[in-house]
Design goal:
The chain is of the alpha+beta class. The protein has a domain at 3-72: 2-Layer Sandwich (Alpha-Beta Plaits), CATH 3.30.70.330. The chain is built from 2 helices and 6 strands. It has helices at 16-23, 54-64, and strands at 3-8, 29-36, 43-51, 68-69, 72-73, 75-78. The strands form 2 sheets. A 4-stranded antiparallel sheet has the order 2-3-1-6. The protein has a two-stranded antiparallel ribbon with strand order 4-5. It is globular, with a radius of gyration of 22 Å. It starts with a strand and ends in a 40-residue tail after the last strand.
């Protein structure tokens, strides 16, 4: 299994093919995933590149971290595992905590509301 790298500060015009070409200078590239906004399809300015080995990944970090591509200094480092999030998807940081997100007030409602059978 390869080593996954995080590549940040990308130009919004950078393509997966360009990243494939760039990272192949450091070693074997298994996969390139350019992160895109799910609604607009535009680049989010970062990607993940899976290198063929730990050695290839270290070569890529030392060669490419800080290198300027399309006027921007790349950030290249080992990807960290994604932090686990509670199920239920995105939202905008609302709900879950002690405030809001619970259907308005909650006074006088017992055991999840009494509107059954409507």
């Amino acid at each position: 299994m390869g080593t996954k790298l995080y590549v940040g500060n990308l130009s919004f015009n950078t393509t997966e093919n360009e990243l494939q070409e760039l990272f192949s200078q450091a070693g074997a590239v298994q996969e390139v995933t350019l992160m895109q906004d799910r609604f607009t399809g535009k680049s989010r300015g970062f990607a993940f590149v899976t290198m063929g080995s730990e050695q290839d990944a270290q070569n890529a970090i030392s060669k490419l971290n800080g290198q300027t591509v399309e006027g921007r200094a790349l950030t290249v480092n080992e990807a960290r595992p994604r932090e686990t999030r509670p199920p239920g998807g995105g939202g905008r940081g609302y709900g879950g905590g002690g405030y809001g997100g619970g259907g308005g007030g909650g006074y006088g409602r017992r055991e999840g509301g009494q509107r059954r059978g409507h």
